[in-house]
Amino acid sequence: MEIGNEPITTQEQYEVIAYRLEHLKDAEPDTPEAEELKRLTRLLVNYIVRGLKKPQKQAYVGSIR
Q1: Can you say whether residue 3 is alpha, beta or left, with left for phi > 0 and alpha for psi between -120 and 50 degrees?
Q2: Residue 51's closest CA among 13, 23, 24, 5?
Q3: Are 14 and 47 in contact (CB under 8 A)?
Q4: Predicted local distance difference test score (pLDDT) of residue 64
Q5: Quick one: pLDDT at residue 60?
Q6: CA 15 – CA 36 distance, rounded (Å)
């Protein structure tokens, strides 16, 4: 699967990117891998934030009573 700059829209895309991030997490600064890490992290965070804005989902953080 080609990973572009388009927003993540499916669970499959999410899983592919999460898997790739796992391999990039120790990338050296100022390398193409580090740039890919930043780009994919932004995509993943945006996907998660969009999902939390849906009415049927609630943020887990801070919801413990």
Answers
A1: beta
A2: 13
A3: yes
A4: 52
A5: 55
A6: 16
Q: What is the structure's pLDDT at 20?
A: 96
3-state secondary structure the chain: CCCCCCCCCCHHHHHHHHHHHHHHCCCCCCCHHHHHHHHHHHHHHHHHHHHHCCCCCCCCCCCCC
Which of 53, 45, 52, 49 minimizes the C-alpha distance to 17?
45
In angstroms, the CA 4 to CA 56 distance is 28
Boundaries of every domain in the chain:
11-52
Only one residue has tokens 């927003």, namely: 7
